[in-house]
Amino acid sequence: MTRRVEMHVGVAVFPGANCDRDVGWALAGCLGWRVTFLWHQDATLPKLDALILPGGFSYGDYLRCGAIASSAPLLRAVADFAARGGPVLGICNGFQVLTEAGLLPGGLLRNRGLHFICRNQRLQVASSRCPWLRHFAQGESLTLPIAHGEGCYHIDPPGLRQLEDNDQVALRYLDNPNGSVDRIAGVSNEAGNVLGLMPHPERACDQATGGTDGQVLFQGLADWMGLS
Amino acid sequence: MPHFHATVRVGLRASVLDPAGDAVCAAAQRLGHGAIQSIRIGKAVEIRLEAPDAATARQQLESLSANLLANPVMETWSLELHDQEG
């Protein structure tokens, strides 16, 4: 039996999302992985190693960011995949979709200063228990781009205590550009297989775009799966 | 089947900061409305639906409000079911 050495990742495509091709390029172009784009109306998934919900403005951000995407047929398949332990990463709008779908705790609100913020952001790894973050030490810092108007993470005080007790805070901003509770930039579910981040690791996979810290996240997942 | 008209009002929870409301409040004060102390911005969703009776209409609208129109993590909602139409 030959050992499969290629990661196969599904990337969701919602109308209005605009980072799906960026994620595809980062994984296929920079890491040589196999990428399958998944249309939002698809109710079944091919056999995948991991699933990524990309950034953008799914369904024009109507109602609330991520609200309408959370009811798409694809999200039922994503929820089943996650329930079976499949690794799921939501980036920016994908993070908003995962909170709206109830796959991650909390929610994302308008940035405290109202500005859309687009810049490189210093971050600190709060927990390296997720496969994506396993190559970072707790407390280690990294730089990833952020680009959002609604990235202010909100959760009530009991919810925050639960996140901390379960080691679910994954990433924090070193400063706090958007007013997030406890400087939270990313959280995981209780099991640790679903991760949501406001920063964009796919935009930090090629030195030509200013840094490669994002590659370390994706490589962490591949190594965790024994594929690279 | 009777037709109903409803309004669902969705707003941020009192504990949640509303920076857009604060910005509008500051603008109002700049325009001389010094008596205005705070502004919170929400949305009103106008809905028309068919249902066999008002109780069924209310039940459907409550489910819709709780599951789609509002996110209970950060928002609250209220439902006003207007008189039956036709």
> Looking across the biggest beta sheet of chain A, what order are the strands in?
2-1-3-4-11-10-9-6-7
The total of beta strands of chain B comes to 3
Shape of chain B: elongated
The helix tally of chain A amounts to 5
Order of helices and strands of chain B: EHEHE
Please give the share of residues in helix of chain B.
25-40%
- In total, the number of strands of chain A is 11
The whole-angstrom Rg of chain A is 16 Å
Distance between the termini of chain A: 17 Å
- Write the H/E string of chain A, N to C: EHEEHEHEEEEHEEEH
**What composes the largest sheet of chain A?**
9 strands, mixed
pLDDT < 50 runs, ≥5 residues of chain B: none
Major beta sheet, strand line-up of chain B:
2-1-3
Quick one: which chains have the greatest interface? A-B, 20 and 12 residues
Mean pLDDT of chain A: 95
- Counting copies of identical and different chains, the oligomeric state is heterodimer
Tell me the structural class of chain A.
Answer: alpha/beta
Beta content of chain A comes to 25-35%
Query: How does the helix and strand content of chain B classify structurally?
Result: alpha+beta
User: How much of the residues of chain B is beta strand, in percent?
Assistant: 25-35%
Helical segment count of chain B: 2
Name the features.
A: 228 residues, alpha/beta, two-stranded antiparallel sheet, 5 helices, 11 strands, 25% strand, B: 86 residues, alpha+beta, 2 helices, elongated
Notes on the structure:
The complex is a heterodimer of chains A (228) and B (86). By secondary structure, chain A is of the alpha/beta class. Chain A has helices at residues 20-30, 73-83, 93-100, 157-165, 213-224; strands at residues 8-13, 34-39, 50-53, 88-91, 107-109, 117-125, 141-148, 152-154, 169-173, 184-188, 194-197. Helices cover 22% and strands 25% of the residues of chain A. Chain A is globular. In chain A, strand 10 and strand 11 (194-197) form a beta hairpin. Chain B has a 3-stranded antiparallel sheet, with helices on one face. The longest helix of chain B has 16 residues, at 54-69. Chains A and B meet through loops of A and helix 1 of B.
